[in-house]
């Protein structure tokens, strides 16, 4: 049975200079349908959605929405307000909430006439309350958004979109920051609303969600729609092949016998900053040739852990022992000298100095190396040779080694950091969210590099919110929740998810 | 010690505190509006001068007093629009642009004054706003002279506080304004204009600052002097932080500063023979620095303050 079409993208094309970000894309969305949009970073998903919303003006093609009377209405291009008026709502990957305002204010922002002498606070709250009842998405109404958990903020985002009689909801990577339980709850709530006629376009990297939640899947690659299928006919390998355009090889973890202990935390305490948890008595031991996965939702003490290992914070209590030597109060330079390689969480902010060149960024941690520096002068030819070799070995692509690092894409910045860190053959690698925001191909590359370092005998601390990644790469798993670490032998998603939510399994 | 108590009990002290606070109330409300929308307006010191000059000049040329206030507001809005143009769509440094506006507005005011009056030695006077004379209430002891003996501009200042508070707390426009100073992406995603809101806030805020300047030439004094703003604008910038961007606390801060200043004048006459007068002159500033240090560490900044926002970028 074919349902009524609510949205049609007709031949949408967008060019940025010589690059065609979206090439003649046709898509239709039916009433009460969930369409998953899959593709690697840079495949054109965001460009497409920005055209749908009128944030970009397409070079060719147009958007049509149903006019409720069986006909289709053509949206004027480049007009966000027209898209909103036509009932299209979007939940961005990065929340667009004003944290200093409360929930009601955020939901009503822009949904009411701007120039009014006063607002009927009671009626507004009543309307929001009713919406929460109807959708089953509950959030404390008077709370400041800054005080809410990430899951709650996402609910506010969705409520905000639904408040305006939205017929078509676009979700951009909605589960990137949720625990598995929160994600399941979100999909359950959305499914109920979809049954009542909401149509959803759902952008995601996560195969598992796409297969379980969507009705239809469209795959984009290099700005072209390369495939479209009903979800029931789809299988993982076929979709992955379509996305990458080649057979994908998942990194394989071969069995290794771990060596001597390399890093030990003994009852380490550190106070957290603001809403983020610190560490409350963390103890663990990492061995050579071992990847220790730290699972958990961000803000539960991962930052404190990473800062201590990087030498950026000194614990209030407890001891940190690296290779048999206490390093509890070591400086970052001492940690680097002791053989710690750091892949920071925020690669743009902490990983590179964006105004400096690729070659310069590649020697940041070797500035006292006589090969690079001699009596206070940089050895430019050596830096150039070093950068050329590393770019080749680690496949760092971009405008060249003398270009500023800011011109590199996220995946290539991560490769630059990997090259800088792994080339020094560190004994201990701290990888903090190493694949966040990376596409399939680049994420696979990071995983393979970490496994290769493990084979060389390095110990790896892998902090990640992506449970699949932890399950795939880690030899042992610790779950982090409000500053505490719990080791688990389980490889079961649901059990680990419960620990991530702070409930004993 | 008795003398200080005497000062605090005198009605003239409290009347003076409120009078001295009046331009600061306008200025601090103006700065608060700009900063709540995410734009720091360091043009305030110059906009004070421009308002003082424009208001006085209009009246001197024969306009009624309230038209003078209007002229000052327009001058302020003009420099506000300039600041907004440079910092909002063009995204230039708000510090640099603001300091530039201060220099431009101050010197162009002086220039205009000198051009209009090339060879006067003593500044020409106008008839300024007079203290209001209310029936009955003006005769209440203490309360009467302190509140009801003020000029209409002081009442306008107090009303402005109420209006700004109402705007921010009770109206959809106020919510949008706070949101644009907190996360412009949130405003843009809802189809509202980030540029429009910021432009409006900076222009309105600058108009208020200029009315604060006009108070100096049209109520506190009756003529325009060079250097008469004398750092009042900078005090307002500090007071906004002291107030954590809240109108009620900003009013409190402005009156507190007015009290320090009124006290300083009186202490000079009391103890001027023993202590150099400069010590008293600096007390309000020293005390505001201390107050700022105590409060500002915990201040709750608008999160997007100083952050330029560009359409189509995330």
TrEMBL record, chain A:
The keyword Ribosomal protein does not apply. SMART domains: AAA (SM00382). GO terms for molecular function: ATP binding; ATP hydrolysis activity. Keywords: ATP-binding, Hydrolase, Nucleotide-binding, Repeat, Sugar transport, Transport. The keyword Nucleotide-binding applies. This is Ribose import ATP-binding protein RbsA. Its EC number is 3.6.3.17. It comes from the Bacteria. Residues 7-247, 263-504 form the ABC transporter domain. InterPro entries: AAA+_ATPase, ABC_carbohydrate_import_ATPase, ABC_transporter-like_ATP-bd, ABC_transporter-like_CS, P-loop_NTPase.
UniProtKB/TrEMBL annotation, chain B:
It comes from the Bacteria. GO terms for cellular component: plasma membrane. It is found in: Cell membrane. Keywords: Cell membrane, Membrane, Transmembrane, Transmembrane helix. The keyword Transmembrane helix applies. It holds the Pfam family BPD_transp_2. GO terms for molecular function: transmembrane transporter activity. The chain crosses the membrane at residues 12-32, 39-59, 65-84, 96-113, 142-168, 199-218, 224-243, 250-267, 279-296. It is a multi-pass membrane protein. Its main location: membrane. This is Branched-chain amino acid transport system / permease component.
């Amino acid at each position: 049975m074919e349902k009524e079409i609510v949205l049609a993208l007709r031949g949408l094309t967008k060019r940025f200079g010589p690059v065609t970000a979206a090439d003649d894309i046709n898509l239709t969305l039916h009433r009460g349908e969930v369409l998953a949009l899959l593709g690697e970073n840079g495949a054109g998903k965001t460009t497409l959605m920005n055209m749908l919303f009128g944030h970009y003006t397409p070079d060719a093609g147009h958007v049509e929405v149903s006019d409720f009377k069986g006909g289709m209405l053509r949206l004027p291009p480049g007009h966000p307000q027209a898209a909103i008026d036509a009932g299209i709502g979007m939940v961005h990957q990065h929340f667009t909430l004003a944290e200093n305002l409360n929930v009601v204010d955020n939901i009503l922002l822009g949904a009411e006439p701007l120039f009014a002498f006063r607002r009927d606070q009671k009626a507004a709250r009543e309307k929001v309350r009713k919406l929460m009842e109807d959708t089953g998405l509950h959030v404390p109404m008077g709370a400041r958004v800054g005080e809410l958990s990430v899951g709650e903020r996402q609910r506010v985002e969705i409520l905000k979109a639904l408040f305006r009689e939205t017929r078509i909801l676009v979700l951009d990577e909605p589960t990137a920051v949720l625990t598995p339980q929160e994600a399941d709850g979100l999909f359950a709530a959305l499914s109920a609303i979809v049954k009542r006629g909401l149509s959803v376009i759902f952008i995601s990297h996560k195969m598992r969600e796409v297969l379980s939640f969507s009705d239809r899947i469209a795959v984009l690659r290099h700005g072209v729609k390369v495939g479209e299928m009903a979800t029931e006919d789809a299988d993982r390998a076929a979709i992955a092949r379509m996305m990458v355009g080649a057979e994908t090889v998942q990194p394989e973890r071969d069995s290794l016998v771990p060596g001597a202990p390399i890093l030990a935390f003994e009852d380490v305490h550190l106070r957290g900053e603001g809403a983020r948890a610190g560490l409350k008595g963390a103890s663990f031991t990492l061995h050579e040739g071992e990847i220790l996965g730290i699972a958990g939702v961000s803000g539960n003490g991962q930052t404190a852990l990473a800062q201590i290992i990087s030498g950026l914070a000194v614990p209030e209590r407890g001891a940190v022992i690296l290779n048999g030597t206490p390093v509890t109060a070591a400086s970052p330079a001492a940690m680097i000298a002791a053989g710690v390689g750091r892949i920071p969480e925020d690669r743009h902010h902490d990983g590179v100095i964006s105004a400096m060149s690729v070659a310069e960024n590649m020697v940041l941690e070797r500035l006292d190396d006589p090969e690079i520096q001699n009596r206070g002068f940089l050895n430019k030819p050596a830096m150039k040779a070093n950068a050329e070799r590393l770019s080749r070995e680690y496949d760092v692509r971009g405008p060249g080694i003398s270009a500023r690092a800011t011109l590199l894409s996220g995946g290539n910045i991560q490769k630059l950091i990997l090259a800088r860190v792994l080339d020094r053959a560190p004994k201990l690698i701290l990888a903090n969210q190493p694949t966040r925001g990376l596409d399939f191909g680049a994420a696979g590359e990071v995983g393979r590099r970490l496994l290769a370092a493990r084979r060389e005998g390095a110990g790896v601390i892998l902090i990640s919110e992506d449970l699949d990644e932890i399950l795939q790469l880690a030899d042992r798993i610790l779950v982090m929740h409000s500053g505490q670490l719990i080791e688990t032998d389980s490889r079961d998603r649901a059990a680990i998810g419960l620990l991530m939510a702070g409930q004993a399994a | 010690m008795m003398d200080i108590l005497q000062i605090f009990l005198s009605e003239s002290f409290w009347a003076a505190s409120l009078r001295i606070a009046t331009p600061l109330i306008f200025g601090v409300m103006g700065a608060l509006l700009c900063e709540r929308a995410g734009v720091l307006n360091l043009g305030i010191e110059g906009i004070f001068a421009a308002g003082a000059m424009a208001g006085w000049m209009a009246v001197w040329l024969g306009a009624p007093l309230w038209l003078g206030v209007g002229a000052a507001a327009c001058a302020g809005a003009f420099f506000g629009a300039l600041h907004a143009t440079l910092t909002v769509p063009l995204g230039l440094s708000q510090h640099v642009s603001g300091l530039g506006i201060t220099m431009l507005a101050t010197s162009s005011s002086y220039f205009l004054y000198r051009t209009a009056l090339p060879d006067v030695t003593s500044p020409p006077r106008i008839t300024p706003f007079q203290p209001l004379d209310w029936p009955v209430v003006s005769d209440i002891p203490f309360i009467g002279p302190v509140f009801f003996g003020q000029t209409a501009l002081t009442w306008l200042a107090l009303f402005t506080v109420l209006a700004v508070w109402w705007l921010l707390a009770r109206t959809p426009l106020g919510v949008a304004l706070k949101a644009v100073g907190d996360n412009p992406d949130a405003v843009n995603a809802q189809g509202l204009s980030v540029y429009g809101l910021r432009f409006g806030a900076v222009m309105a805020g600058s108009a208020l600052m200029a009315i604060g300047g006009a108070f100096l030439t049209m109520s506190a004094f009756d003529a325009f002097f060079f250097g008469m703003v004398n750092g009042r604008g900078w005090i307002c910038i500090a007071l906004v932080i002291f107030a954590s961007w809240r109108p009620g606390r900003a009013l409190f801060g402005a009156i507190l500063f007015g009290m320090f200043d009124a006290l300083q004048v009186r202490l000079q006459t009391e103890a001027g023979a023993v202590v150099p007068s400069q010590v008293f002159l600096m007390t309000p500033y020293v005390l505001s620095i201390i107050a700022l240090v105590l409060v500002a560490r915990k201040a709750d900044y608008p999160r997007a303050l100083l952050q330029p926002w560009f359409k189509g970028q995330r």
